[in-house]
Specification:
single chain; 178 residues; alpha/beta; Leucine Aminopeptidase, subunit E, domain 1; seven-stranded mixed β-sheet; 7 strands; 21% strand; globular
């Protein structure tokens, strides 16, 4: 699924984020940037030791923040690591923290001149954020940023499984119709 927003091609894809050929990919990391499960583990595994070395030097990323490392052995030149919130019922600031992840990544990419960027569905795996709620936040935050900043060439949301892709596609259809 593709949309044109200003000069930016915005896409939803089902697949493996480690295979994206964007200038940077986003990693759903933990606060100490130590490779973990899911997307985080896959990116560290595919990207190799160079990512882990830079992550150790950085040491920490607050929830909602973003930091940049090399892409190591990935097709992407860079990895932007962001720490999503652990879902604890939805009334403990999780929505704002999740929106902050997307804004922080987009702002950092813009500051570094990164014109193409691929995101996973942040916090919907091990951090248990409900997919539909996360999709609404992710899509609103990204689309609002793109409407305000006509900078990027391409932004991709790469959804690992069919169910997550389907939910994001349905949410995007509702957002673009209204």
């Amino acid at each position: 699924m593709e949309l044109k927003i200003g000069g930016t091609l915005f896409c939803l894809e089902q697949g493996d984020i480690t295979r994206q050929e964007t200038k940077a990919i986003v990693n759903a990391a933990n606060n100490y940037l130590l490779g973990g499960l899911g997307v985080d583990g896959a990116i560290h595994l595919a990207g190799g030791l160079a990512i882990a070395v830079e992550c150790r030097k950085i040491g920490y990323c607050p929830t909602g923040g973003a930091v940049l490392t090399t892409g190591g052995n990935l097709k992407a030149e860079y990895v932007i690591h962001t720490v999503g919130p652990v879902y604890r019922g939805g009334d403990k600031g999780e929505a704002e923290a999740l929106a902050s992840c997307y804004r922080s990544c987009l702002q950092l990419a813009k500051e570094k001149g990164i014109l193409s960027l691929a995101f996973p569905s942040i916090s919907t795996g091990a951090y248990r954020y409900p997919v539909e709620a996360a999709a609404k936040i992710a899509l609103k935050t990204i689309l609002d940023f793109l409407l305000e900043h006509d900078f990027f060439e391409k932004i991709v949301l790469v959804l690992y499984d069919e169910k997550t892709y389907r939910v994001y596609r349905e949410v995007l259809a509702k957002v673009t119709v209204s």
